[in-house]
Amino acid sequence: MPSKAKTGKKLVIVESPAKSKTIAKYLGEGFIVEASIGHIRDLPQPSELPAELKKTPLGKFAVDIDNDFKPYYVVSSDKKKKVAELKAQLKDADALYLATDGDREGEAIAWHLLEVLKPKVPVYRMTFGEITKEAIHRAMDNLRDVDQDLVDAQETRRVLDRLYGYEISPVLWRKVARGLSAGRVQSVVTRMVVDRERERMAFKAASYWDLTGQFAAGSGSFKAKLAAVDGAKVASGRDFNDNGELTSRNAVHLNEELAASLAAGLQDAEFRVRSVDTKPYTRRPAAPFTTSTLQQEAGRKLRFSSKSTMQVAQRLYENGYITYMRTDSSALSNEAVTAARRQASELYGPEYVPQSPRVYSGKAANAQEAHEAIRPAGDSFRTPAQVAQQLSGDEFRLYELIWKRTVASQMADAKGSTATIRLGAVTVGDPADRRDAEFSASGTVITFPGFLAAYEEGKDESRGDDESEEARRLPNVAKDDALTATDIVAVGHETSPPPRYTEASLTAELEKKGIGRPSTYASTISTIQDRGYVRKQGSALVPSWIAFSVIRLLEQHFHDYVDYEFTADMEADLDKIANGQAAGPAWLKHFYFGEDSEPGLLSIVNNLGEIDAREINSIPITDAITLRVGKFGPYLESSTATVDPETGEVVEAARANVPEDLAPDELTAAKAIELMETAAPEERVLGADPHTGHTIVAKNGRYGAYVTEIIPEMTEEQLANQPVEYYKNGKPKPPKKPVKAKPRTGSLFASMSVDTITLDEALQLMSLPRVLGQDAEGNPITVQNGRFGPYLKKGTDSRSIGSEEEIFTITLEAALEIYSQPKQRGARAAVPPLAEFGPDPVSEKNIVVKEGRFGPYITDGITNITVPRTTSIEELTRERAVELLAEKRAKGPVKRTTTARKAPARKAPAKK
User: Fold this and answer.
1) Would you say 637 and 618 are in contact if contact means Cβ atoms under 8 Å apart?
2) Over residues 162-177, mean pLDDT
């Protein structure tokens, strides 16, 4: 049978549907563009391996550790249909073009497609940095093969992460808590956040004083600050270390008394200008965006999270508005440089463009393969105004940021001058007590804005006490000019601890240390928050106490694997594999099995020895109070036993819950003592249930106060009297462990407390739900308490009632009356919002937090997003609310799939 004739079509495969639609417009007739929708196969869970493989070297990791760490890949169940579709398309194609992204991840996707589809037609690797007509045509002229070195590097990375996570995570499950995870990069990032919090906890503030004054000359007035006393520099915040100690030997440390005395002595003193120093000021523009700097700047200027930034950037790239958004390079192509210079000249004037193009080539220490910087797509740039109608609010704001940064990068330096005035006087009074005081004032005046006309880079929070000198114009004065002083006052200060990381500053530090890949920073920072290791407080990243336990265990028993330099070296090794300078299997063998005197991960895991879980999960706060990380969260425990004053018996040590919104550095010794002194009793015995004899207790639980019964364990006699079951051969079966009875419980009403609740009230709560009776059709009606308050229930029909106290007083007649009324939906009195945060910067509509069916949610009337479980309403800030709404918008509307209903099968006519 003759083979089927080809159609002349060429199959192009990309990752996403959005990318495929944009590319299809530029390729035109003769090309079929399909999307793989990401990876089509991956390592399975070991439990999903075929039974015959589970006892082989593949069984532990789905990686054959005895055969060059060869991974066992499977096509994902949700991708089998897509693979079948691609194979069908390939049958009719004359050529296959793998047009996935040009980085390691994209190269790996292309290789997996090649391995699974097994094409019998010519295969070409096609890459491009932007999705424009010119770029696509250039890519068609520069086709290549799949880069096996890049594939090897990505495959090595995937196997490495599986070995790391699957060996270390189980140790965390056994010694800290179930469900925790360790990761090659995520654990190191978590350590960075914990280390910063440790610095804040150890920090000791120092107080210092200085003077400020207002000084007038003929041409104007200005503010100046005390700089020296009797020729010695006055100590400022940067002259103290984190222990509160003065480190500058020649600095004068003013206390309140000295500062006040000095201020009083200068009230009538004669001030004169001692020197005027003027220097030229030049400032160069920042380089075009890399992945890292884009995330940092979008965080500072737009309040986007790293994750939200990358989601929006992905859409801009796939729809042809910007170049590829995962890059370590700040270089621009010749076409981009020409476009930026031309646009700067047209918009700001030719004087704003330097004679020679600016060249940026600086890269991070672990820079990935060379891509171009992130910039507007095309050989000529579209201005923000030209794309405003085509983009959503967040897309427009990010595009505008990228456009401004790119154009500014090819503009002239900002020019100006910086002036510093030194002025002084001698205090008035007793000649023996006179002091010489010298003040200083600085200011920078911009005479030519240059690139600042288009863009100015943002800054992260820093320590110190320098005030901005930008655009601070000082009067024209000369040496020995007399000055009139007013408002000379003593001002007290306190040194500040190291600022917590924000997503922007953490990203910058990760890049500086060479840890991880800038393209994965967003997902890593998101992961440590999802795992409960870190939460956001405003824009600051705050570690949880469980993160302290995890990092402590890893530092003590897996030190190298959370070491910053070791992790950066691993990235460098992976780069060598990508460059063809090293082989992945050999590197993995050294990492896992070790070599000579260097132990591998396997050896370390097998020789951990005894790990004291209690010690790992304990942090001393004072000599008598220890914080412990328990199954249900952190709590404080007295290290001295408590003695019952009536019996003299030693009872369990006193405990107190730690508020979830209390940051670790805020748990000072004084705060710990306060929490212990004000802690409600964890448990209070109320008495015995007269019907069962079971002891009834009231407890303070993690999710609120409740009452419960204590069901005693079965005695040996009761166990011995259990009925005996027999096998078919007549032999008795071993006695079964009795099923533990579930105790009755009941949450306390809002008006109740563990201290005051009575036995009768507790028995009432545990009796809920309360059966009121039946309606005319025999349907039972009950009343109970729920998350949204007390309510009646009849089958699936629920109706709210007034207060919790009505649960025990409402009658069947009252319930039937409520059910006789039509059910009202949305007609209740408007419930005030839980919180309000003012207008959203994108929609300009008021942001509020409301209580919904599935919990509290944030809305601006257009976009809704549930408040994360890790964030309480009290700690939710405007910045976090804006960020969550931005992330939700970035994801776009939820696509609802509808399943077509099959028409009922027609019955065959009955036979006659």
Assistant:
1) no
2) 94
Strand partners, 225: 212, 440
140-160 in b/e form (b: 16+ CB < 10 A) is: beeeeebbebbbbbbbbbebb
Q: In terms of Cα–Cα distance, which of 100, 104, 149 is closest to 127?
A: 100
* Apex 562 CA angle, 561 and 566, nearest 5: 65
- If residue 117 lies in a helix (H) or strand (E), which one and from where to where? helix 104-117
Q: 531 CB contacts (<8 Å, ≥6 apart)?
A: 180, 181, 186
CA distance 663 to 551: 17
Residue 121 CA to residue 32 CA, distance in Å, equals: 15
3-state secondary structure 438-476: EEEEEEEEEEECHHHHCCCCCCCCCCCCCCCCECCCCCC
Contact indicator for 184, 167 with CB cutoff of 8 Å: no
- Place 908 in a pLDDT band, splitting at 50, 70 and 90: very low
Cα 706 from Cα 701, distance rounded (Å):
7
- Burial (CB count <10 Å: 0-12, 13-18, 19+), residue 48: exposed
Choose among 680, 634, 638, 640: nearest CA to 661. Answer: 634
Rounded Cα distance, 890 and 4, in Å: 46
How far is the C-alpha of 755 from the C-alpha of 685, rounded, in Å? 10
pLDDT over 70 percentage in the chain: 90
SS3 (DSSP) at 659: coil
The pair of three-digit structure tokens given for residue 848, joined into one six-digit string:
């509020």
**Which of the 8 DSSP states describes residue 237?**
G
Buried b (16+ CB within 10 A) or exposed e, 539-566: bbbbbbbbbbbbbbbbeebbeebbebee
Nearby residues of 564 by Cβ (< 8 Å), 6 or more positions away: 188, 192, 513, 515
DSSP structure class, residue 531 = T
Contact call for residues 128 and 138 (beta carbons, < 8 A): yes
- What pTM does this model have? 0.76
Contact assessment for residue 415 and residue 447, using Cβ atoms and an 8 Å cutoff: yes
Q: What is residue 309's three-state secondary structure?
A: helix
Please state the length of the chain. Answer: 912
Are 485 and 214 contacting, i.e. CB atoms less than 8 angstroms apart? yes
Give Dmax over CA atoms of the chain in angstroms.
133
DSSP SS3 for 136:
helix
745-747 and 770-774 strand pairing: unpaired
In this structure, which amino acid lies at residue 754? V
Query: pLDDT class for 462, splitting at 50, 70, 90?
Result: low
| Closest-CA residue to 64 (of 155, 154, 146) | 155
pLDDT of residue 460: 63
Query: Six-digit token pair at 357?
Result: 């193009």
Q: Is 324 a catalytic residue?
A: yes
Query: Where would I find the H helices in 266-415?
Result: 291-302, 306-318, 334-348, 384-387, 393-408
* Nearest one of 239, 242, 237, 263 to 251, comparing CA atoms: 239
Cβ atoms 364, 292 nearer than 8 A: yes
Contacts of the segment 645-652: beta carbons below 8 A, 24+ positions apart: none
Per residue in 125-135, pLDDT (tens digit) is: 999 988 988 89
CA gap 229, 438 in Å, rounded: 6
Q: Could you give the CA distance from residue 104 to residue 317 in angstroms, rounded to a whole number?
A: 18
Q: At 620, list the tokens.
A: 């001393």
Catalytic residue among 164, 324, 521, 635: 324
Instruction: Give dist(CA 300, CA 309) in Å, integer.
Output: 11
Distance CA 156, CA 589 (A): 11
Encoded tokens for 485: 């002083």
Radius of gyration over every alpha carbon of the chain, rounded to an integer in angstroms = 35
Please name the amino acid found at residue 528. I
Q: Say which DSSP state 369 is in.
A: S
Distance CA 609, CA 529 (A): 31
Q: Which two tokens stand for residue 761?
A: 């009230």
Q: What six digits make up the tokens of 446?
A: 């911009």
